[in-house]
């Protein structure tokens, strides 16, 4: 059986070509800042950007104070008209000082700023009434002046291709007057929830693709079995994985397909079309009689490759012949915790790296309590960290989605460990 590292490497290798070939699109800074269609704003530049202007664009004052000539340190000079921010000042004549506000352009002739605190009365607007200013001894050229280009020189690289679009970069681009940038197109992922037990997608036996409708909210008595009287369940994986994908800047669509094998391929191919870079399925890959993903996609290129991990043991991947092309498919098990843990372990690291998003913060902390783990598998438990120790949240079973929702960390119990004792060091990944 594969290790998690081997499977993660295979997932990375499977995705590498589509991640590399996504192409670029030009997006306005405002759209990137607002995050419309960009997940949490995680995008990377397709091309480097050089500064069309220097930053700062002109010499300006770092302080509210007086623009002076440093050669006149020790002199008493006449105070002239003030320079507010946004005004182009007249040159500063010898023997004068001009009140100047933070960010205002330094007048030609001036080369230093005396902070208003160094004057009497020590603050504006009262200091506007000064007729003369004693330029302090020791005022040197450049003091409290923010020099043109001292942040970024004209023509210097602001960012390189592949750099993540961060708030600071957007701010720097805006400062330089760059209104739009060329960014790598988000990866497009079709999330396929499979199973005839899924409401609005599988309860019917027609197997057709369904729009991702989500839960109904009529709140009243129902005849669809969703109150527990029947055998259908709601699709947790579709919405959870789409949200997880959005967190790493991927564009996701959801579709639900039943276990009816003859309808699965047409439904899948019509949803894939020319759109999907990656198909991510859940369910239908283990040992049952109606494993539709396995039955339909194995002959077309999917490879079932169990991994020594719990939850998330059943796994499959491959380049699959779909809609006239070979599309990367990653297949996760259907149990909701298995699906989300699989995402965290196998897919998130690859997609996060592709958009410059950070990995989950990792720490090694002592266990607060004991636990058991299958010795031949890497177990991923759910937990919370309190007082610097790891507390397990719920048991190891892969249907405990409410417990995962309540957890703040994934807790790793490595291969070869059958017992965790209080105090044993455990690696945790922070989910929030
Ligand atoms: N005889 C064996 N049975 C099972 C094995 C095994 O090795 N031998 N492995 C078990 C493990 S571990 C897992 S995990 C599951 C994986 O099964 P599948 O990937 O084929 O998934 P399904 O059977 O379709 O579903 C499993 C479970 O998850 C629920 N489910 C599926 N999709 C969704 C969804 N979109 N939202 C919410 N819940 C979903 C489904 O109803 C099942 O309860 O197999 C074990 N069996
Ligand atoms: O591997 Mo399954 O994902 O434990 O429940």
TrEMBL record:
It is an enzyme of class 2 (transferase). Its EC number is 2.10.1.1. Keywords: Magnesium, Metal-binding, Molybdenum, Molybdenum cofactor biosynthesis, Transferase. SMART domains: MoCF_biosynth. The keyword ATP-binding does not apply. Residues 190-353 form the MoaB/Mog domain. Residues 202-223 have a biased composition (Basic and acidic residues). InterPro entries: MoaB/Mog-like_dom_sf, MoaB/Mog_dom, MoeA-like, MoeA_C_domain_IV_sf, MoeA_linker/N, MoeA_linker/N_sf. Gene3D superfamilies: MoaB/Mog-like domain (3.40.980.10), MoeA, C-terminal, domain IV (2.40.340.10), Molybdopterin biosynthesis moea protein, domain 2 (3.90.105.10), Molybdopterin biosynthesis moea protein, domain 3 (2.170.190.11). Belongs to the MoeA family. Catalyzes the insertion of molybdate into adenylated molybdopterin with the concomitant release of AMP. PANTHER family: GEPHYRIN (PTHR10192:SF5), MOLYBDOPTERIN BIOSYNTHESIS PROTEIN (PTHR10192). This is Molybdopterin molybdenumtransferase. It comes from Curtobacterium subtropicum.
């Amino acid at each position: 059986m594969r290790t998690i590292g081997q499977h993660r490497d295979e997932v990375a290798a499977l995705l590498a070509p589509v991640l590399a070939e996504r192409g670029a699109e030009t997006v306005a800074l405002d759209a990137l800042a607002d995050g419309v269609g960009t997940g949490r704003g995680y995008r990377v530049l397709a091309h480097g950007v050089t500064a069309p202007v220097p930053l700062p664009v002109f010499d300006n004052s770092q302080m509210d104070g007086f623009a002076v000539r440093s050669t006149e340190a020790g002199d008493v000079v006449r105070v002239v008209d003030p320079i507010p921010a946004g005004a182009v000042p007249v040159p500063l004549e010898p023997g004068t000082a001009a009140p100047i506000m933070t960010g205002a352009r330094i007048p030609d002739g001036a080369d230093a700023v005396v902070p208003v605190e160094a004057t009497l009365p020590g603050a504006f607007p009262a200091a506007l009434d000064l007729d003369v200013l004693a330029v302090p001894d020791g005022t040197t050229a450049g003091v409290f002046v923010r020099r043109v280009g001292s942040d970024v020189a004209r023509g210097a690289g602001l960012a390189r291709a592949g750099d993540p679009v961060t708030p600071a970069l957007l701010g720097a681009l805006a400062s330089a007057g760059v209104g739009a940038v060329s960014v790598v197109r988000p990866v497009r992922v079709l999330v396929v929830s499979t199973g005839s037990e899924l409401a609005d997608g599988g309860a019917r036996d027609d197997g057709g693709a369904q729009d991702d409708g989500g839960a109904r909210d009529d709140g009243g008595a129902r005849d669809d079995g969703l109150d527990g009287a029947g055998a259908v369940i709601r699709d947790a994986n579709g919405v959870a994985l789409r949200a997880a994908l959005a967190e790493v800047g991927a564009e996701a669509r959801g579709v639900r397909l039943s276990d009816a094998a003859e309808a699965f391929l047409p439904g899948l191919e019509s949803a894939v079309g020319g759109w999907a870079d990656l198909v991510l399925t859940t369910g239908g890959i283990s040992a049952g009689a109606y494993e539709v993903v396995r039955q339909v996609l194995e002959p077309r290129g999917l490879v079932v490759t169990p991994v020594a991990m719990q939850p998330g043991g059943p796994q499959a991947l491959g380049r699959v012949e779909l809609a006239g092309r070979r599309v990367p498919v990653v297949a996760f098990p259907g149990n909701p915790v298995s699906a989300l843990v699989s995402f965290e372990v196998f897919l998130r690291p690859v997609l996060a790296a592709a958009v410059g998003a950070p990995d989950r913060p990792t720490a090694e902390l002592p266990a607060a309590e004991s636990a058991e783990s299958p010795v031949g598998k890497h177990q991923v438990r759910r937990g919370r960290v309190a007082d610097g120790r790891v507390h397990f949240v719920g048991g190891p079973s892969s249907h405990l989605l409410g417990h995962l929702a309540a957890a703040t960390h994934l807790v790793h119990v490595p291969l070869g460990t059958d017992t965790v004792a209080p105090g044993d060091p455990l690696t945790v990944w922070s989910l929030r």
